[in-house]
Write a structure and sequence with these properties.
The structure is a single chain. The protein is of the alpha/beta class. The protein has a domain of 126 residues: Rossmann fold, CATH 3.40.50. 44% of the residues lie in helices and 20% in strands. It has nine helices and seven strands. It has a seven-stranded mixed beta sheet, sandwiched between helices. Helix 7 links the parallel strand 5 and strand 6. Helix 3 runs parallel beside helix 5. The radius of gyration is 17 Å and the shape is globular.
Length: 201
């Protein structure tokens, strides 16, 4: 029995931090796991930028509330759920994800949490577990599922490697070049085709 583990940002929704950068004009916040492969380095950099500019959780939540799933994502999700079980496995945070989950019909999400001070500033982040994406894939395989993983960034690679089948969706050129053995897709139609090839093999 196959189960799909899909990243959220860049796969089903826009990148939250890029949207925050565009709304605030803080260009440094455009950096994502597509650019920096060390998640701890990236998050510490982000938290330092938020502190420097006085941005609080509510400021980021206000941006997220206006975001929508990517064009075609809802139709793709509807098709996917008609075929397979889906778990979204993301390095986002419970405190961020709510509005986007509502717009996607509340799919199951495994993600992380934030530490938030009394004044609303984000003081830290808490991983659900280290290398959590990979461990989700391994745990599901230990439950006798066959895992199809879909991702686009450096932080998805260990999950893609642990899965039975892996698909890159709209990866940046650097990720595509470093991991040429993963099939690359650029449209939801292509992802569907790859999944159909796997489950009908």
């Amino acid at each position: 029995m196959y189960i799909v583990c899909a990243d959220m940002e860049g796969i089903l929704t826009p990148e939250i931090w890029i949207n925050v950068a565009e709304r605030t004009g803080i260009e440094e916040l455009r950096l994502t796991t597509r650019d920096i492969d060390d998640y701890d380095v990236l998050m510490k950099k982000r938290l330092g930028i938020l502190d420097k500019h006085g941005l609080k959780l509510q400021d980021i939540q206000a941006v997220i509330a206006k975001m929508e799933p990517l064009d075609g994502a809802l139709d793709f999700l509807s098709w996917l759920r008609s075929e397979l079980q889906l778990i979204i496995v993301s390095d986002t945070y419970v405190e961020f994800a709510g509005p986007l989950l509502e717009k996607m019909g509340r799919p199951t999400l495994f993600c992380n949490t934030l530490s938030v001070a009394a004044n609303g500033s984000i003081s830290g982040y808490n991983l659900r577990q280290k290398d959590g994406k990979k461990k989700v894939a391994i745990a599901l395989k230990n439950l006798n599922y066959k895992v199809i993983a879909i991702g686009d960034s450096y932080n998805d690679i260990t999950m893609l490697k642990a899965a039975d089948k892996a698909i890159l969706f709209r990866p940046p050129d650097n990720v595509k070049a470093e991991f040429p053995h993963f099939p690359v897709t650029t449209t939801y139609t292509e992802v569907k085709r790859e999944i159909q090839k796997i489950i009908n093999y």
